[in-house]
Each structure stands twice: as structure tokens, then as C-alpha cells.
Amino acid sequence: MDKLKAVDRSVRAHEAAHKAAGGPYAGSETFTFTTGPDGQHYATAGEVAIDIGSVQGDPQATIAKLETVRRAALAPADPSGQDRAVAAQAEAGIVAAQGEAAKQKTQPKDGQGDAPSGGGLTAEGDAASTGIQGGGAGGVTSRQGAAAYRKTQGAVDAGIVQAAQAAAAQPLALFA
Helix, strand or coil for residue 46? Predict the structure, then answer.
């Protein structure tokens, strides 16, 4: 009986830590009960549902939300394997959202242009104005640099989209 009571206290404290740290993103605690020899029900397992979906169109809000989720997953003194998995999902979502935020910062507001302003490379202009040696053997023109930037940015964008889609595919996780 003493062991069941200790497990009950531990399980309830563990799930309460998730719930408290998860704030508005955490659902209700649910428990699995075992009936003791005294006829009482003791919590022997539990979980808290938590929303790990992104905030559509707002990477900064997504980052803040997923940081809360990560803290909630690791809130108990003894996080389970599932807790660590949820924290890892949140971390992946944070990285994807940070990439999306960076992408939004580098895109011109008017949708025109190929490279971020003030970055040292422009799609047009001479090599001297960009600080790059142009033309000769081994030299890189500003147009070549901008093309390389676009190619690299496309690969980064594809990775961000893939990570965000993977995170969005599982908008609800459970802490065990």
C-alpha cells in the first residue's frame, strides 16, 4: 500500500509539473489507476496532452510557443523517454521557425530582388562596389555571387519547409 501511495504521489506530481509549465498549450491530466488492496484507486501512470502545432504565419509566436512546450516537457524532475521525445519535437519546430523568421527578414517587402539589401552582394552592380574581385581567373562577379546565394537559399528554404511540415504533421503530443 505504501508503494502504491508513493507511486500515486509521484505520478500526480510529474503530470502536474507538465500541466503547470505548459500553460495554455497543455490539456488536462489523465491517469491510469490501479485498485489497491484497500479498494482505493491509485494513479500508476498519467499523461498531459500538449499542442505542439505552429502558429500559422508567425514564426516568432511559434518559437515562443514551442519554447514553452519544451520547458513543459522537461519540467518534471524525472522526464520520461516520451517527455524527451516531445522536447526534441519542440526543438525541431523551434529550429524550423527560426529558419522561417530568418527567411522572412531576408525577403524584400515588395517581393522584388534576389538578395538581401545591405548584404554586400547585389544582382546588379560592378565588382568594385560589392567588394568582390570580378572577372579574371578565380574571380567572382556580383551576378555570380547573387546566383550562388539564390541556389543556397533555395536549398535552405526547402529544408525549412520540410522541417515545418514534419512538425505540423504531429500537432498534438502527449507527456507520459
Answer: strand
| Confidence (pLDDT) at 20 | 97
The number of folded domains in the chain is: 1
Torsion (CA) 123, 125, 129, 130 in degrees, nearest 10: 20
Residue 164 and residue 97 in contact, taking contact as beta carbons nearer than 8 Å: yes
Grid coordinates standing for 1?
A: 500500500
For residues 87-100, one letter each, b for 16 or more C-beta atoms within 10 angstroms of the residue's C-beta and e for the rest, the string is bebbbbbbbbbebb
Residue with cell 555571387: 145
Q: Quick one: how far is CA 44 from the chain centroid?
A: 31
SS3 174: strand
The residue length of the chain stands at 176
Domain hosting residue 112, numbered range:
2-175
- Residue type at 117 in one-letter notation: S
Write phi, then psi, for 34 (nearest 5 degrees): -120, 135
- Per-residue pLDDT tens over the stretch 34-63: 999 999 999 999 999 999 999 999 999 999
- Provide the whole-model pTM: 0.62
CB count in 10 Å sphere of residue 82: 14
Q: How far apart are CA 124 and CA 147, in angstroms?
A: 11
Which stretches of the chain score pLDDT less than 70?
A: 108-176
